[in-house]
Design brief:
alpha+beta, Vanillyl-alcohol Oxidase, Chain A, domain 3, 3 domains, eight-stranded antiparallel beta sheet, Uridine Diphospho-n-acetylenolpyruvylglucosamine Reductase, domain 2
Length: 481
Amino acid sequence: MEAEKIIAQLESILASEHVHTDDKTRKLFAEDLIFSGPPPLAVIAPATRDEVRDSVRACTKAGVALLPRGGGLSYTAGYVQSEEDAVPAVVLDTRRLDRVLEVNADNMTVTVEAGCTCETMMAATAEYGLRATMFGPTTGRYSTIGGSLSNNCMFFGSAKAGTSADAVLGLEVVSADGKVVVTGSGAIKNSVPFFRNNGPDLTGLFLNDAGAVGIKVAATLRLEKIPKGQAASSFTFGSFDTLIHAIRAIGQSGLASECLGVGPAPLGDEAVSDPTLHVMCEGWTQEIADAHLAAIFEIVGTDGTAGEPVVPNFIRDNPFSFVQSPLDAKGRMQIWTHGVFPLGRVTDAYDGFMTVLKDQFADMAALDIEASLSFACAGSAMMVEPVLYWHGQAKNLHHTGMTPVEDRAPEDNDAARRDACVRSIRGAFASMMDDLGAAHMQYGRFYSYASATNDETVALLRNVKRAVDPENLINPGVLGL
């Protein structure tokens, strides 16, 4: 493979201004919010399905890997190769594939290109009084539909509707040989994308795959009418035990659209505040929404003290704008490590995370590392997610990936020690979650899909990967494949 030759081919397909080979861009696209790897040969930004197809064909024919990237807000090395396993690669930036192709109010579907953001999609469907059943993560101003489906995501509507993958009816995917594969009813001759479960569920093959099986270029999602009624409340609890009991029961009830539990920050030997729970209910009428909220009050009972719903209302009023930076409000680095658990294991998950943290509290205090813990419902599952905060050296992505922010240098020379401590804690989290059989969103290269999944299932997936990508050139190494 001659780098100059493949770059020239890509420039003939895309035009040179959309093939970036400068060191600054290559370095930026070789990092996510915590991991860094070797710079790719180039970063390409196709704007059409044909440009994706032709670029994939050119790269795979030359033996060059493709690393698909959406908004870039990964923290699990989803598109970042390790130094040890790196192969010649090109990052495929999907953000110019940003069109809303169709809102079909009769069929209750929306079809968008993979680089379309959740916010753009929501604005387009809202004109018809519609929205996707799960309409985005809190970073939906920057997160792309393709990225959210490759990594799975949750939040708005998730307590009732599940994750982003649960809303998908069909996909258009470019395979390693440059062919465009259509899944769901959109693949039927003379039909349209409206029904996912037509024959074997090939759509599911390309969801939550970290971009390992093919390059998504478009997706069709299920819509629902935007409810007319909305009712929210916040509750304060005297302990994590009572919070967990309440949020688990609310998750089992299916009454809430969003249900978010937040622990005191910072966690430590002495809590500085009580954990809180923030609930949003909806209904076709305001009376129905109010009735759902009244039922939640019955579930919470005397365990929680109700307060003004400032947090859930603010989040809904500012769905994609209240999170402005990957840095926290104090300018510190922050990183998330989550597990997805059945409702019956939430207490075990909490105990596991707290055991890891308690073993590290002394080092965390010495290095000024803080932690918080949150819980969020996603249908019949619960995401439990500790967040670590520390003063460290921010990367270019922290300053450019969302709203640009000013650089803040570390307070002292302990940045490397802090980073090492954070990585150690996250590694302990991952091991603990493996022991509890946790599932994950955004597997990337951090969570251990291949080693944590039973051998027969992994063998089947490897066979599928070999069939659709025999040279392992579509995001090689992700998922442990």
